[in-house]
Amino acid sequence: MFPQITITGEPFERGRQYGVATAAQVRHSIASYARLFAYRRGLDWSAAQHEALAYAPLLEEIAPDLLDEMRGIAAGAGRTLAEIIALNVRTELLAGVGVGVHHPEATAALARNRAAGVPQHVEQPATANGAGDDGECTTAAAAPPATANGGVWLAQTWDWQGDQREACVLLRIISPDQPPILTLTEAGMVAKIGLNGAGVAVGLNLLRSQADGQRQGMPVHILLRQMLQTTSVAAARQLAERIPASGSSCITLAGAGGELMALEITPGGVAELPAHEGLLAHANHCLDAGAAAGECALEPTSTSRERYGRAWELLQAAAGQIDLAVLQRILRDHEGAPRCICRHPDPRIAAVDRNESVCGVIIDLAAQTMHVAANVPCLAPFVPVSI
């Protein structure tokens, strides 16, 4: 199971506690993203930090508390503030880069990282040339009338590079003026998938649009944390409109009162997709016609349409009876393997291009509990973790 960390107090102190408790995992996150920035953009870690620092004025404006928390993380983990910002804006620093890109300067950037002592993973050689994909995550959510006993559920796989599993933490945040938060995130980052004590939950899927990466914008992981700091789905929904995004994503919002919607967020705006008779599914392509008009064409390696279709099929088949057991079966589904919801790693593919279901998460809003499978979902039990 992933480490559980509870942090309390004012922003800097919360961050310091977080950094102290996860220094090794933060180092692992840096190794993962230093490698990825080198491969995808030809940036060494020093250059990536320089670009990340350009986000500091924006963060000071829109999330000064979280910037202060990042300062605390850096102090506690023995890293620089620029490194922690780079982790928190990693999606934006990679926005607009094509799937599976190996930048011509990658080798040189990796060499500079080694010379500078930047953390690195021990790489296992790929057994053959294979085509990777950057597709992330399948979401399946349900609310009345589709659920058993009036429950509200938000479930998803988090699909990403498997070695980043070692950096996953369950972060419990207790602050004096906001609802308590439980979020599954990558060490050094302020949030990802999660729920709060006011009955608001968030999930995340990556999207790609043609306008990605062209300007600085709202970092999605900052937005997720800010949504988790609200006391209602309506307030969380309003935050999506605050400033345009730099990169595209889908945030699924669920509320204990039965609210359920997917927000397709692109640099061009926000498209809201309501649940249909209490059912909602999403993967990594746009469903709103307007958002879809500006998205990048799916790569041949993408499994998004198959995963979305299968999740929707399974939700409809269980409508009126959806509960924890149903959602576990959905996240463990192998129909159409390997182009399936529960995705296993392909050892033929190099680690930087190899994606898998890092974990599975099922949020029970009524019980304020997150059920977490800390591996490919069919290989691990779903362990309940409460706020």
TrEMBL record:
<dbReference type="InterPro" id="IPR047801">
    <property type="entry name" value="Peptidase_C45"/>
</dbReference>
<feature type="domain" description="Peptidase C45 hydrolase">
    <location>
        <begin position="150"/>
        <end position="344"/>
    </location>
</feature>
<dbReference type="Pfam" id="PF03417">
    <property type="entry name" value="AAT"/>
</dbReference>
<dbReference type="InterPro" id="IPR047794">
    <property type="entry name" value="C45_proenzyme-like"/>
</dbReference>
<feature type="region of interest" description="Disordered">
    <location>
        <begin position="116"/>
        <end position="141"/>
    </location>
</feature>
<protein>
    <submittedName>
        <fullName>Peptidase C45</fullName>
    </submittedName>
</protein>
<dbReference type="InterPro" id="IPR005079">
    <property type="entry name" value="Peptidase_C45_hydrolase"/>
</dbReference>
